[in-house]
Specification:
single chain; alpha/beta; binds pyridoxal-5'-phosphate; 9-stranded parallel beta sheet; about 240 residues; 9 strands
Length: about 240
């Protein structure tokens, strides 16, 4: 299977999920997650119509952006989707168009300061750990609607974060647990969608994007309201 064939299959899956959810496929932005894949593969994806690329490690991606952009038919939008260590924040700010994985207030303060120093404005999504798994990064959001301690802390941190200059917070991002039952995965996505509504109403902010869903679960995410899906294996094949 070529990457172009894979893109067609993923697009068919997106269309089918949208039909089921009564949504327009144009509402869904497909982010091709190319971690561990070569610049050649990314260019093939771009030639077949992909416009958004996701990477999770700044060191790995730094060497790919320039050759890909030189060979690709048009400008690509680069999304950082992995956890970023503080000392790499500056490089991320310079290389990426969007940080989907803004996962702590501390890092947000740092990006805000660095962006100000470089006269930049960083577009970012807030990563929320809705599943509650210890292995996941993100603002703690497990059971936010029932656990008042979780909720109070989240609201306090995000209220401060939304006041920081030089950041444009465009929405929320999460990852569902791997190998979980469908009901569990759907609840994680629904909880993120509910959190978006609640934050918009109570903090008077606009959060248009909901980034959720990967190769194994993006149809469920679309049904629950995803506007961005992040797909790796279904487009580029397996990773080791
Ligand atoms: C790897 C990765 C993806 C894509 O996962 P697949 O299962 O290959 O589709 C999506 N989001 C993040 C944050 C990732 O690290």
């Amino acid at each position: 299977m070529s990457i172009a064939d894979n893109i067609k299959r993923v697009q068919d899956r997106i269309n089918a999920a949208c039909a089921k959810a009564n949504r327009d496929p144009s509402e869904i932005t497909l982010i091709a997650v190319s971690k561990q894949k070569s610049a050649v593969d990314i260019v093939s994806a771009a030639e077949a119509g992909i416009q958004h690329i996701g990477e999770n490690r700044v060191e790995e991606c730094a060497g790919k952006i320039a050759p890909v952009q030189a060979a690709a038919p048009g400008a690509l939008t680069w999304h950082m989707v992995g956890h970023v260590q503080s000392r790499k924040a500056k490089q991320v700010l310079q290389l990426f168009d969007i940080v989907q994985s803004l996962d702590s207030l501390r890092l947000a303060r740092r990006y805000s300061r660095l962006a100000g120093e470089s006269d930049l404005r960083l577009r970012a999504l807030l990563e929320i750990n809705v599943s509650g798994e210890a292995s996941k990064h993100g603002f703690a959001g497990y059971n936010w609607y029932q656990d008042s301690a979780v909720r109070d802390r989240l609201w306090r941190e995000l209220a401060e974060l939304f006041e920081l200059p030089n950041l444009e917070i465009a929405g929320l991002m999460t990852m569902a647990p791997f190998h979980a039952q469908e009901t569990t995965i759907r609840r994680v996505f629904a909880d993120l969608a509910g959190l978006r509504v609640e934050l918009q109403n109570s903090l008077d902010v606009s959060l248009p994007e909901l980034s959720m869903g990967m190769t194994d679960d993006f149809e469920l995410a679309i049904v629950e309201g995803a506007t961005m899906i992040r797909v790796g294996r279904a487009l580029f094949g397996g990773r080791n």
